[in-house]
Amino acid sequence: MDTAGDVRALIEELGGSAVIVGNSMSAGAAVLVAAEHPELVAGLVLVGPWVRNGAFQRALFRMVMARPWAAAAWKSYLQKLYAGRRPEDFEEYRDQLVANLHRPGHVKAFSLTTRTDRSPAEARLSDVTAPVMVIMGELDSDFPDPTAEADWIGETLHGEVVMVPEAGHYPQSQQPDLTADAVMHFLDTVANDA
Q1: Cα(161)–Cα(21) distance, integer angstroms
Q2: Cβ atoms of residues 104 and 192 within 8 Å
Q3: Which among 126, 140, 167, 179 has the fewest CB atoms less than 10 Å away?
């Protein structure tokens, strides 16, 4: 994954180990960096993490997010991703995001992200040795059973699982205080164990 290479390069440029926070598809990149370069990763926080393929969901998402209807489909699907409590500026954010997709080349680039293969991350899960926290919204519509998915990832990575109430795929913006408290607790634990 190109994103994993970018994350690794940034950590090396900054000159030290880091706690990587990966949301959604970027969680797979975080896993790859932790598996391939453990010396660079002090911990992982995986939020609404996609770290393995769901064949049906991947095929459906790829079809729905194809041009020419990707912007309209994303606008509609975003409602589901923000199930539960929404930020006060959700409508404004959604409209800006959809407008951005109409800029030249943006919808094509976005559609390409739907082709991300998560099997490399899944194959390397057992190689991750860094401490892990999994944060999942209880209403995350990206997974048939968000609690089961979070528990599976947490068990596989020997990590802590935090389920966020009244939140979908973006608990960091839907329940920022709860999410930030969990992340800060994790960072304190990682710092104390170092």
Answers
A1: 14
A2: no
A3: 126
List pLDDT tens digits, range 12-54: 999 989 999 999 989 999 999 999 999 999 999 999 999 998 6
Q: CB atoms < 10 A from the CB of 185, how many?
A: 13
Tell me the C-alpha distance between 100 and 66, whole Å: 16
Whole-angstrom distance, CA of residue 49 vs CA of residue 26: 8
- In the chain the domains, ranked by start, together with CATH numbers, are 2-53+117-193 (3.40.50.1820), 56-113 (no CATH)
89: how many CB neighbours lie within 10 A of its CB? 10
Residue 117's pLDDT band, with cuts at 50, 70 and 90, is confident
Check whether 57 has a pLDDT greater than 60: no
Return the ∠ at Cα 126 (arms to 36 and 112), rounded to 5°: 65
| pLDDT at residue 7 tops 60 | yes
Written as one letter, the residue type at 121 is A
Which two three-digit tokens encode residue 107? 């919808």
User: Residue type for 87, please?
Assistant: P
Say which amino acid occupies 101: L
pLDDT at residue 108, rounded to an integer: 81
Q: Which two tokens stand for residue 64?
A: 């729905």
